[in-house]
Design goal:
By secondary structure, the protein is of the alpha/beta class. The N terminus is likely disordered. A hairpin with a 6-residue loop joins β4 and β5. It has three domains: 194 residues, Rossmann fold (3-Layer(aba) Sandwich), CATH 3.40.50; 68 residues, Helicase, Ruva Protein, domain 3 (Orthogonal Bundle); 69 residues, Orthogonal Bundle (Arc Repressor Mutant, subunit A). 50% of the residues lie in helices and 13% in strands. The strands form three sheets. The chain has a five-stranded parallel sheet, covered by helices on one side. It has a two-stranded antiparallel ribbon with strand order 4-5. The protein has a two-stranded antiparallel sheet with strand order 8-9.
Amino acid sequence: MDPDRSPGIVPDPAIEAAAADLTVRRVEAEEPIAEARGADPDDDLDRSLRPSRLDDFIAQDAVTDQLAVFIEAAKRRGEPLDHVLLSGPPGLGKTSLAHIIAAELGASLVHTAAPALERKADVAAFLTSLEPNSVFFIDEVHRLNPAIEETLYPAMEDRRLPVVLGQGAGARTVTLDLPPFTLVGATTRAGLLSKPLHDRFGVSHRLEHYDAADLAVIVRRSAGILEVEIEPAGENAIATRSRGTPRVANRLLRRVRDFAEVRGSGVVTGEIATEALGLLDVDEAGLDRHDRVILETIAVKFSGGPVGLTTLADSIDEEPDTVEGVYEPFLIQQGLIKRTPRGRVLTERGYEHLGLPVPEGAATLF
């Protein structure tokens, strides 16, 4: 008997042949993805900047404190951690936490994204190749199609995987016993998860945006890893322009580092950071050129609004989905624009940010 086989799995040549075929499909599918990912050096740099333990994860104390308890309890009982759902805006550390959970459990991590799971066979290939107590991480879990979700239900609840062998009248369904595992799902849109899937996660946490003080600590830590000398004023200049997001802070730090090495002595001072961020068109509130174009378009072309999404997108030569999903959330969060039933309007704070006088009667729009 295979020593790596989990207890309860009964050998069956037909079943094992199906599982082997599924594994081959998974490996073939992953190879081009791995090659594509390896082509971007910034991806490797991002991974090197990620915290590896809960103690290294900055802020989000309520999340990390609870996870520490749940992980320790699971380890003491010798059981897998209950399935975990991590939600929140992009760039706040959901993927990092998934890796940390695996590291704290001393388990291997298998990583995929929901759009890559197009067929039941894709999910089965991953599940049947998991080692006992592995962490199976699915990013963008809200994008799973219903057929894939139904495949996950028995796997999450009973660690069983129904597999159909053959076709037509000769087809039969067999059930594979799966090793114990923890499914970690990450999503930026938790409201799009179906209730049956959402309810199967025993642990659910939402990550919130970071304040400037916490981001300054993150910038300091990342600068140490990158061996960049940075002054407190430089840390603060980057942190205040990072939109409350560690991923943005690390990206800006890398670009400021380049500027400091080429046009300075290599030390990231407050002056160097401010000059570099100005070159990048990132203002003191963290808005870039595209954000300001949206604000200026509403203010000047449409007299402060209201203006419909499609009209606004056409006027700046952008796709409506990009405006709504990429640019608007931060502008709304900062109180610079507001969505109304009639369209988008510029708030008083938006006018002030642009340095424009607030039109008389504009307040009646809000």
